[in-house]
């Protein structure tokens, strides 16, 4: 019977480690009932019975805390510790005390009593080391030490004690690896990822999480749902709140199953609330925070309850600030909350709450009260999260504005954006680089608002360059090979072929599609941290931009609230033009795109085509009247470099009447436009023309385009395989890619073109030693971008520009097959005759503007 009690305990522990906590509790209770039937008076069974009871009670107390709260669990463990005194064997006593102290430490950590938890884990480690010293270092003796080091390292991470945390976790990984405890090594590596995130190294954290996930899978173990939570936290630190929300939406169903743990589920709900808050979904943020707070109260963790309450207050503050009339009761509630928090343990939460109160007081006009509260907010420490540092800068800037000290406010904003730039410099992938702008959004908006109010065009130009499209400031860096990423991409490509074959044969494709989606998600995750970028370039100076423009004019659009403006640079002159409502321009751009999409098919009935053309011309005229004609005296008939903002990225500029036939280049910033000219290109001068499968005959006539060029490599259909195409593109002067394309909103580098043997990803083009100087994307809409905060446009075309291509030509909306073929024929004829890309495209579009909505991105020369 003792043997059966032991088995039930082992099965209960296994169930608990796998997240099946209700099943674990049932097994442990069965074991306890069975142990109660054994007569402990028998000398032969007394020792074994006592040890079995202790193990059962220790594990059961830890699990009881999940539902009843840590106080119940700690009380149970105190009773267990008294039982250990009756165990005769000193080494067995050490083992049991180590196990109980470890469980006690975990409960204290989960209750937010971090220092007490570390002390309990210190005691556990002392007992475990004593047990190990008395015998051979077998895995069964090493595993408890690994678990305790992992737990204590996690505690030190939460305390901000970076050195002790790294020492514990690194030793845990080494011990586990050395004794073949691969799952424990994955746990400790996962915890090291959390430490990397705590120190601000997001790519390193994501690499650790990916490595741990791979280890779990290789051991045939389920991936812990909390790994998804921690990956989401890293993405939020990089400003990728949408992606973080998607990660958490995958985790939540598993956490809400019958095996869910109250505390863990509450954590996931809280961070889902944070992601929703960051993306502006305030209703979801409030609901998730309320649910998390309720669960955390049941659990009894004061820190957890404070975090959930604080998020609810942040939501209330945003709503109040938007209303323009925040109430005093809300300010009092926020300050009362801050004053109740124990310091120093919850000093960071108290500081954040006071910063909310500062903003509320300023909006009410109570500058003195705001000043007094801000004085109680301490300077940020080395490990203070970037969003807290940005909020403090924003409070200081807004206080300076309220006092009429605009220069002081701009100095605070400049310092905040410099701090944010240091964070961006540590990011790895393109998405991480772009996402960080989210943390500086309000600072950037305030800067533009202040400078715009002064009407100083030169200063506005400088601030716009400092705040927008920072991704394109970085030197392209030739990427080293990433075998795992390459393997995942190859799997996705192979699965795509299998799906096509199954469809052809009439077989089911559900399982294949699910596997492909999972492999694509894995590739996306790897892409977040396998990228590499060079040193940041300086922000473009106005004098240098003017000198490089020559006879061209640069028009940089910007908006503040609903006001749309343009900074126009013509030679040494810099002018500011006010262009009315930003919302009206955005709506005109949206409707124009919809009309052009409807007008695209080749064989529309004549009546319908005329109706759609009339509507498109109307919207083009509206945009022209608002955006271009007011600038006529400033820009004259010069070629243009246009830096859009927000929805204006969707404007096909060659469609606007005033710009018909005028060479126009679109760049994400003046800095990016200059940077494209600085990229060293060592092309071989060759032209590569690629046709993917399934294209209409007209669009796929690359041999006709090849006739315009003296020497051109033609690659079509099955011969246009990914590996061969990549080899041909490396170092090419012109790359014309006619293939179906798909934009990937979660990660621009995984937008793709369909070639003969599967998809070609932008990530692979970015990995070329020498990307093509000039890329033409035909038969797809991959110029369309997802516009992130900070006017960061991301898509297939923009990924190519960020990775070193000088010029990219692509359509902004759908193009009919015949119209596309005719446009490309005209375009390549002009290129072959010596025209620069922007000039050749302007001439090609002018033939039939409404059916040729192409844009020239990058440099255009």
From TrEMBL:
InterPro entries: CHAT_dom, TPR-like_helical_dom_sf
Source organism phylogeny: Bacteria, Bacillati, Actinomycetota, Actinomycetes, Pseudonocardiales
Residues covered by the CHAT domain: 618-844
Pfam families: CHAT
Protein name, as recorded: CHAT domain-containing protein
């Amino acid at each position: 019977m003792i043997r059966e009690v032991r088995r039930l305990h082992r099965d209960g522990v296994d169930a608990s480690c796998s997240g099946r906590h209700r099943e674990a509790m049932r097994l442990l209770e069965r074991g306890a009932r069975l142990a109660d039937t054994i007569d402990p008076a028998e000398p032969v069974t007394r020792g074994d019975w006592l040890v079995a009871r202790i193990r059962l009670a220790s594990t059961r107390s830890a699990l009881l805390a999940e539902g009843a709260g840590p106080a119940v669990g700690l009380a149970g463990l105190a009773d267990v510790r008294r039982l250990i005194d009756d165990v005769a064997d000193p080494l067995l006593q050490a083992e049991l005390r180590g196990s109980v102290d470890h469980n006690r430490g975990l409960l204290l950590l989960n209750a937010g009593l971090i220092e007490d938890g570390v002390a309990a884990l210190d005691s556990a480690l002392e007992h475990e080391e004593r047990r190990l010293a008395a015998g051979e270092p077998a895995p069964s003796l090493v595993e408890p030490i690994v678990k305790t080091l992992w737990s204590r390292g996690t505690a030190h991470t939460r305390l901000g004690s970076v050195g002790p945390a790294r020492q514990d976790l690194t030793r845990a990984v080494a011990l586990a690896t050395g004794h073949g405890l691969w799952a424990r090594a994955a746990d400790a590596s996962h915890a090291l990822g959390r430490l990397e995130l705590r120190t601000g190294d997001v790519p390193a954290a994501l690499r650790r999480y990916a490595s741990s996930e791979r280890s779990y899978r290789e051991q045939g173990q389920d991936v812990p749902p909390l790994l998804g939570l921690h990956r989401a936290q890293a993405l939020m630190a990089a400003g990728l709140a949408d992606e973080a929300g998607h990660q958490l939406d995958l985790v939540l169903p598993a956490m809400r199953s019958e095996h869910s743990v109250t505390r863990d589920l509450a954590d996931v709900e809280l961070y889902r609330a944070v992601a929703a808050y960051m993306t502006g979904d305030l209703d979801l943020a409030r609901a998730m925070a309320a649910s998390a707070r309720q669960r955390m109260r049941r659990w009894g963790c004061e820190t957890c309850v404070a975090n959930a309450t604080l998020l609810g207050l942040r939501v209330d503050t945003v709503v109040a600030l938007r209303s323009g009339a925040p109430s005093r009761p809300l300010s009092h509630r926020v300050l009362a909350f801050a004053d109740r928090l124990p310091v120093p343990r919850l000093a960071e939460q108290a500081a954040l709450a006071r910063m909310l109160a500062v903003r509320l007081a300023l909006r009410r006009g109570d500058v003195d009260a705001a000043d007094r509260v801000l004085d109680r907010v301490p300077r940020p420490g080395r490990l203070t999260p970037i969003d807290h540092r940005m909020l403090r800068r924003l409070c200081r800037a807004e206080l300076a504005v309220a006092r009429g000290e605009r220069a002081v406010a701009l100095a605070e904003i400049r310092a905040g954006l410099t701090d944010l730039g240091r964070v961006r410099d540590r990011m790895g992938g393109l998405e991480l680089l772009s996402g960080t702008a989210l943390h500086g959004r309000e600072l950037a908006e305030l800067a533009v608002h202040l400078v715009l109010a002064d009407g100083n065009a030169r200063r506005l130009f400088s601030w716009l360059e400092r705040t927008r499209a920072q991704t394109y400031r970085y030197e392209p860096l030739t990427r080293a090979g990433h075998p795992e990423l390459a393997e995942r991409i190859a799997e996705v490509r192979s699965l795509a072929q299998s799906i096509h074959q199954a469809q052809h044969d009439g077989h089911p494709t559900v399982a294949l599609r699910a596997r492909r989606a999972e492999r694509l998600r894995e590739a996306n995750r790897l892409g977040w941290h396998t990228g590499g970028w060079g040193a940041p370039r300086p922000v473009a100076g106005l004098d240098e931009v003017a000198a490089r423009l020559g006879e061209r004019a640069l028009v940089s659009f910007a908006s503040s609230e609903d006001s749309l403006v343009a900074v126009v640079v013509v030679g040494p002159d810099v002018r500011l033009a006010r262009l009315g409502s930003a919302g009206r321009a955005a709506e005109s751009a949206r409707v124009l795109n919809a009309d052009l999409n409807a007008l695209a098919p080749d064989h529309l009935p004549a009546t319908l085509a005329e109706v759609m053309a009339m509507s498109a011309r109307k919207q083009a005229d509206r945009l022209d009247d608002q955006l271009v004609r007011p600038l006529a005296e400033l820009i004259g008939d010069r070629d243009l470099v246009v830096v859009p903002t927000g929805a204006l990225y969707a404007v096909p500029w060659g469609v606007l009447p005033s710009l018909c036939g005028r060479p126009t280049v679109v760049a994400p910033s003046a800095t990016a436009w200059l940077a494209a000219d600085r990229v060293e290109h060592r092309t071989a001068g060759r032209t590569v023309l690629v046709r993917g499968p399934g294209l209409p005959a007209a669009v796929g006539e690359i041999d006709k385009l090849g006739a315009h060029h003296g020497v051109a490599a033609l690659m079509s259909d099955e011969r246009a395989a990914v590996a061969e195409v990549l080899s041909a593109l490396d170092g090419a002067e012109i790359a014309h890619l006619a293939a179906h394309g798909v934009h990937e909103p979660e990660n621009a580098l995984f937008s793709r073109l369909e070639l003969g043997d599967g998809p070609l990803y932008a990530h692979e083009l970015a990995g070329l030693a020498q990307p093509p100087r000039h890329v033409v994307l035909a038969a797809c809409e991959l110029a369309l971008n997802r516009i992130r905060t900070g006017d960061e446009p991301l898509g297939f075309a923009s990924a190519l520009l960020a990775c070193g291509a000088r010029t990219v030509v692509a359509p902004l909306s759908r193009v009919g097959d015949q119209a596309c073929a005719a446009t490309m024929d005209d375009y390549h004829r002009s290129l072959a005759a010596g025209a620069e890309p922007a000039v050749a495209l302007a001439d090609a579009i002018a033939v039939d503007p409404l059916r040729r909505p192409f844009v020239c991105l990058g440099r255009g020369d």
